[in-house]
Write a structure and sequence with these properties.
With about 450 residues, the protein is of the alpha+beta class. The protein has 2 domains: about 290 residues, no CATH class; about 160 residues, no CATH class. The chain is about 25% helix and about 20% strand. It has 14 helices and 17 strands. Strands 9, 10, 11, 16 and 17 form a 5-stranded antiparallel beta sheet that branches. A 3-stranded antiparallel beta sheet has the order 7-8-15, with no helix packed on it. Strands 13-12-14 form a 3-stranded antiparallel beta sheet, with no helix packed on it. Helix 2 crosses helix 3. The chain is globular, with a radius of gyration of 23 Å. It starts with a helix and ends with a strand. Bound molecules: heme C (5 copies). The site of one heme C has 26 residues, from helix 6, helix 9 and helix 11.
């Protein structure tokens, strides 16, 4: 079985190489794949129909980042901002490519195929983002990046066709069902959670690859944890990370079918605290906080030989990929250090947000920096011709840094080190024209306190 998996990966690599070569030549940019001609939009079944029977799963999915992938205001405003003012055709191709993942039902049925299409004309069903009938019509994956899902949808509600999932004994009445190994593996997630620049091939997001190289991708079934093994076990109060229990979720897949020992949950919670709350869903925001608080640990020590020095160690104990993952050049994860004397006066600080909610340049940050091909950092992914650095914390690993306070702290001094997360830098959000965007909420992932 392990061997077979290996061969499959090699196959993907080969296909990736060919696709890269072809996109490199500038042949297949932006146009819908010829192999995968557009489907009529009415072949897809609205989420509300699935909700009629799968009501619990629907409620979990609603206001998840998958359900909001098309409407998410942060995505929309950032995407339009990055598109502005580009003149290089290769950069424009990338800046137009977003809808392939963010509005996937629209993309495969012919509208929108580009970001600058009039998105207000998006068919109603496609506005519902990454939805039930999209994932459950998938049959295979052609490449492990930029959404290589191959679909076989049914023909609408009159002839719903086969919905593919993890069960070999499901006997639904409305649609047919089929066991699909693909749905039980990380690859169904990985094909969208690895993002490459469509022309330059630069790695923009590498969540799947990070997981693939992590201890969670173990051949030992006892130790192996897929994306679903964490993200489709979470529910309120149960973060289900690498450092917590991941208890089964007994229940039924519909309002009337038999109980099973575990039903996969569909909250798809990552780290996004801001966006579900914009849609009034505090529960999903809180679940993102719970996930972030069970992802990492931090330690702080004063050097016994040289008391001016403090050592800080952060460990990725809970994530199946780097911290942060996804948009590593946008997400901000950093260490804040504050020393206070006995009277509460601050005597040393590092990584403290300023009055404008901006992070000082010298903060210890975990991130990727993308470059323009000449070694200069760029924030616009459309211009990213290279990855300049990757200082994120890999799954199961730790990083350590020493800070020189410049003085020996007085007795009674308290040193507090916190690992903090927020979705995007204020420096970027501030530049986006139109109604000002509030600074993204800061979440404390871990905290350590030492008294000298
Ligand atoms: C009329 C009720 C009904 C509707 C509507 C419905 N389903 Fe189902 N579905 C079921 C039942 C019953 C099962 C079997 C549950 C079990 O065996 O635990 C099921 C099972 C499934 C499975 C598991 C299949 C497997 O083999 O693992 C998937 C996936 C699924 N449905 C997706 C969908 C999607 C997507 C929609 C909307 C397009 C939908 N269902 C609409 C009743 C329905
Ligand atoms: C061992 C548990 C575990 C596994 C396995 C796992 N994750 Fe995560 N995931 C987490 C935790 C904990 C967080 C919150 C910390 C963070 O953002 O990295 C998270 C966060 C995320 C985020 C939000 C990223 C951010 O920082 O904004 C995404 C997206 C994500 N995971 C996708 C995936 C995908 C796709 C896979 C499989 C390739 C996967 N995860 C596997 C635990 C896991
Ligand atoms: C991002 C893709 C994705 C979306 C969107 C999605 N699902 Fe699923 N679903 C999955 C995967 C993957 C599994 C199986 C997980 C596994 O086996 O590890 C699953 C499992 C299921 C099951 C079987 C549950 C069980 O444990 O028996 C049902 C039923 C189902 N989904 C229905 C739905 C419905 C209804 C919606 C929309 C409200 C939906 N899904 C949206 C990917 C998705
Ligand atoms: C069709 C492409 C696609 C597939 C397939 C897919 N995702 Fe996603 N996923 C996305 C996009 C796009 C977003 C971000 C939407 C946004 O932030 O606007 C996202 C968001 C997420 C988030 C929330 C990230 C955050 O910062 O909070 C998690 C967690 C996640 N996906 C996990 C999964 C898992 C697990 C699977 C496999 C079962 C999966 N995804 C399959 C495209 C996909
Ligand atoms: C191959 C699939 C894919 C494509 C294409 C894609 N994205 Fe995403 N996008 C994702 C995934 C997966 C996430 C979630 C990762 C995370 O949470 O860090 C995401 C999240 C985002 C977010 C974060 C939203 C938030 O609420 O914090 C922004 C912004 C974004 N994408 C912008 C873009 C832009 C702009 C484009 C086109 C230039 C684009 N994406 C193209 C998969 C994709």
């Amino acid at each position: 079985m392990v061997k077979k998996k290996f061969r499959y990966d090699v196959g993907i690599l080969f296909i990736s190489a060919v696709v890269l070569f072809v996109t490199g030549l500038g042949i297949s940019q932006g146009t819908p794949q010829k192999k995968n001609p557009p489907f009529e939009i009415d072949r897809f079944i609205p989420v509300e129909t699935c909700a009629d029977c799968h009501s619990e799963i629907y409620e979990q999915w609603e206001n998840s980042m998958h359900s909001l992938s098309h409407t998410d205001p942060i995505y929309n405003r950032v995407a339009k901002f990055l598109r502005q003012g580009l003149i290089d055709n290769d950069e424009i191709e990338e800046a137009e490519s977003c809808v392939k993942c963010h509005t996937p039902v629209g993309f495969v049925s012919g509208f929108p195929t580009r970001l600058s299409d009039d998105l207000t004309k998006t068919p109603e069903i496609a506005t519902r983002g990454i939805q039930c009938d999209y994932c459950h019509s998938a049959t295979s994956v052609t490449k492990m990046y930029n959404n290589g899902l191959v679909l076989k949808p049914g023909h609408g509600e009159d002839d719903p066709g086969i919905k593919r999932g993890p069960r070999d004994d499901a006997q639904p009445d409305f649609h047919d069902a089929q066991y699909s190994k693909l749905h039980t593996e990380s690859g169904i997630c990985g094909t969208c959670h690895n993002v490459k620049h469509v022309v330059f091939g630069t790695d923009l997001e590498t969540t799947y690859t990070e997981w693939e190289n992590s201890p969670y991708n173990s051949p030992d079934p006892e130790k192996r944890v897929t994306c679903q093994g964490c993200h489709m076990y979470q529910r309120p109060g149960i973060p289900a990370t690498g450092s917590t229990e991941r208890p089964k979720n007994p229940g039924a897949a519909t309002d009337y079918s038999d109980e099973r020992p575990h039903i996969y949950t569909h909250y798809f919670v990552g780290a996004n605290v801001a966006v579900p709350a914009m849609f009034g869903d505090e529960e999903k925001s809180n679940m993102a906080r719970e996930r972030l608080k069970n992802a990492a640990t931090i330690d702080v020590d004063i050097d016994p030989a040289d008391k001016k020095q403090i050592h800080v160690t952060v460990s990725n104990t809970g994530a199946g990929h780097s911290i942060p993952t996804g948009l590593g050049n946008l997400r901000q994860v950093w260490v804040e250090i504050i020393a206070r004397d006995r009277g509460g006066k601050t005597t040393y600080e590092k990584g403290v947000l300023d009055a404008g909610s901006e992070l000082p340049e010298d903060a210890w940050m975990f991130r990727t920096v993308l470059g323009d091909g000449k070694g200069n950092p760029v924030i616009n992914i459309a211009k990213a011709r290279e990855v300049l650095s990757d200082t994120r914390i890999k799954a199961g690993e730790q990083m350590r840094q020493t800070f020189d306070m410049g003085f020996v702290p007085r007795k009674g001094t308290t040193i507090t080190a916190r690992l903090l997360y927020r979705g995007a830098p204020q420096k970027l959000l501030k530049q986006i024209p139109g109604e000002p965007i509030e600074p993204q909420p800061v979440v404390e992932m871990a905290k350590a306190v030492r008294t000298f």
